[in-house]
Amino acid sequence: MTGLLSGEISSVAEFLAHALEMEAESVERYRELAENMEVHNNSEVAVLFHRLAAEGDAHAEHVKRRAGMYKLPSIAPWDFKWTSPDAPESVAMGDVHYLMSRRQALELALHNEIRGQDFYTQVAESSLSAEVQCIAKEMAGEEGAHVTMLREWLAKEADKLQLPLADLDPPNMPE
């Protein structure tokens, strides 16, 4: 498990603010990727990214319901307690290519869900608040369910022949 947490999260409200931001950023990135794949006629991967965004929306709604009873703090982007510039579940744009296969997209999503699970686990292990520990463990379990789902989807992909997409519009390099 890599170090994704940069400090203790001491209150439930602070933890839920982090969780909401993480889910929102993940959904936004998946939608952005789906739109990019559509532009490049990679509809199979676009459909997958739309589905991942919908899964993220459902998880974000669950977090919003849980957060409803708390006054969440407003946290500046640079003050979130994760070690990367983006939230742990956000897809790094440098890892994406418009000709990527469905399998590659699933592997990328799996990597991000594992990072989300690791983040929640690290919060549960480091927080001094028993309530934060309990909620973080539960959310790590939910991320674990997402990891399992993606591994099942990847197993189904293993049986399919994966032909690389042809670049129908390669970059025009001046001579």
Blueprint (SSEs and pairs):
Blueprint: H1 12-39, H2 43-67, H3 102-126, H4 130-158
Helix pairs in contact: 1-2, 2-3, 3-4
Would you kindly provide a written description of the structure presented here, covering whatever features stand out?
The chain is mostly helical. The chain has one domain: Ferritin, CATH 1.20.1260. It has 4 helices and no strands. The protein has helices at residues 12-39, 43-67, 102-126, 130-158. The model has no long low-confidence stretch (mean pLDDT 83).
Order of helices and strands: HHHH
Broad shape: globular
Distance from N terminus to C terminus (CA atoms, Å) equals 47 Å
Question: Per DSSP, what share of the residues sits in E-state strands of 2 or more residues?
Answer: under 5%
Q: What fraction, in percent, of the residue positions are helical? A: 55-70%
Name the poorly predicted regions: none
- Secondary-structure class: mainly alpha
Key features?
single chain, about 180 residues, mainly alpha, Ferritin, 4 helices, about 0% strand, globular
Concise description?
The protein has 175 residues and is an all-alpha fold. It contains four helices and no strands.
